[in-house]
Model the fold of this input.
Amino acid sequence: MSATAIQNLGSTIPVPSVKELVAHTLDAVPQRYLWDVDGDYPTAPAFSGNSSLQVPVLDMAKLVDPRYQELELQKLHDACKNWGIFQLTGHEIYDESIKNMHTKTQKFFNLPHEEKQRYAQKPGSLEGYGQAFVISEDQKLEWCDMIFLKTIPTETRKLEFWPHNFTKTLDTYSQHMRKVAVSIIGLIAMALGTNEKMLSEAFEGGQYDVRMNCYPPCPQPEQVIGISSHADISAISLLTDCGDIPGLQVLKDGQWVYIEPITNAIVVNIGIIMEVVSNGVYKAPYHRAAVNREKERFSIVTFCYPEKKFDIKPDAKQVMDSECLALYKSFTNEEYFKSFYERIKLSGEGIPFIDTLNI
Ligand SMILES: O=C(O)CCC(=O)C(=O)O
Ligand SMILES: [Fe+2]
Done:
């Protein structure tokens, strides 16, 4: 898939802001937000903190320390293979950069609606403030307001969508996330036994998009969904939670498992491109965001894409075809995902794949 394909992944029909809905009208949740009307949509259980399954936690300091590296790389490999998602602690990203970004994000969503509208999505584009992937008038809606921005390379930025006081903070945050992405991709390459330098370089010059999510409290949290089940189309995604409110869930062995926020940890999520790059050894996991009755939750996701410079290998394409079909079928917004899938199938051009990969 080319960077251009990623950039043009769709537009969205304007729908009401969830925050506005909560502020003005909310006696009962409107029908369009109720996913579990018949009890056949797997509802989000409230966080209980006592799941037997725990998402792996990896320590960057140990991953780069020669004394522990071999063992830690094995843990990384197992995490990517068996979960496709893990929490990363011990990274070198300054707390300040993450905190500043969290504060700005919360402030932005708490601005009056009219002010946020200055940065609203325009027809035909996903960038800006609004909702993602609403493609039909009768589609179920997610309990989430968001703002989506391209950050790296700088020439992809459309500053008219950037809230006016974001520039420095988001720039710093994105540079830091790129640093984490390059390091973690290098380690993933080592764990896969492939060319670390080539893969790291592809991310050094890669594309980085940021999505900030706001999930207002909901009086019927079991029947709505913040973000419905999906796999990310990035190579990896890096998520930071702006508080300690659990919401992100990953599907593991048929069970939805909460990722319990750890202060300053970064959640690393394998995306579909990495699934292809690894020839299907690593899986892009289904995940979703649950909401709760009491507290507003905010998250920031950085979608990381490699530079477009590798050719696809035939066997990688096969993995993509079968896996993508399965993904596509379970996707909520089928039309959107179908167009994505068709684009991948048709474009021989540039699904990044490392030729030296030998697994
Ligand atoms: O907010 C979350 O926990 C999940 C966000 C997510 O999956 C996304 O934006 O792709
Ligand atoms: Fe996601």
